[in-house]
UniProtKB/TrEMBL annotation:
Binding site for Zn(2+): 122, 126, 132
Essential cofactor(s): Zn(2+)
EC number, as in UniProt: 3.1.-.-
Signal peptide (UniProt feature, chain positions): none
Name of protein: Endoribonuclease YbeY
GO BP annotations, alphabetical order: rRNA processing
Domain of life of the native organism: Bacteria
A single cellular component GO annotation: cytoplasm
UniProt keyword terms in alphabetical order: Cytoplasm, Endonuclease, Hydrolase, Metal-binding, Nuclease, Ribosome biogenesis, rRNA processing, Zinc
UniProt GO molecular function: metalloendopeptidase activity; RNA endonuclease activity; zinc ion binding
Originating organism: Novosphingobium colocasiae
Length: 168
């Protein structure tokens, strides 16, 4: 998959966000091979809470910012049936909100880079048709893929505290 990346203020220039996104995608493709399809393209926008708030209101009817938005453009069955030959296929768009991401990272006691990598993995899985809101089994499957991909990147399980609290 090819990622088209746009990085806007306030995301700090000191971090190579494009490299971080590329590493997250490479790791994810190891655990969700459908995302390794070379014909796929996804756009990734690193932007502000204000922009994500606008997108969330206009496209989802939710008048608030959120950490990550995913806009799939390919049905899961079409993704799984995609042949290796043919023109590029747009998987979808992802937008990450800086202020929410930074606040959540601080609350979790993790770096903003690690939290952003998690949100990128999460967003890409949504583009691939995974949905944690359709049931407990789906949520657990999605979280397992996220955890495996992040471990490949050397990032701790973002759900560790929840799993320990529930006795898992």
């Amino acid at each position: 998959m090819d990622l088209e990346i746009d990085i806007e203020a306030p995301w700090p220039a000191a971090t190579d966000w494009a490299d971080l996104a590329g590493r997250a995608l490479e790791a994810l493709a190891q655990v969700a091979p459908e995302l390794g399809q070379e014909r796929l393209i996804a756009s990734l926008l690193f932007t502000s809470d204000a922009e994500v708030h606008t997108l969330n209101r206009e496209w989802r009817g939710k008048d608030k910012p959120t950490n990550v938005l995913s806009f799939p453009m390919l049905e899961r069955d079409d993704l799984l049936d995609l042949s290796d030959r043919g023109p590029p296929e747009m998987l979808g768009d992802i937008a990450l909100a800086f202020e929410t991401c930074a606040r959540e990272a601080a609350e979790k006691g993790v770096s903003i880079e690690h939290h952003a990598a998690h949100l990128i993995v999460h967003g890409l899985l949504h583009l691939a048709g995974y949905d944690h809101e359709t049931g407990e089994a789906e949520a657990e499957a999605m979280e397992a893929l996220e955890t495996k991909a992040l471990a490949i990147c050397g990032i701790a399980d973002p759900y560790g505290d929840r799993n320990q609290a529930s006795g898992e």
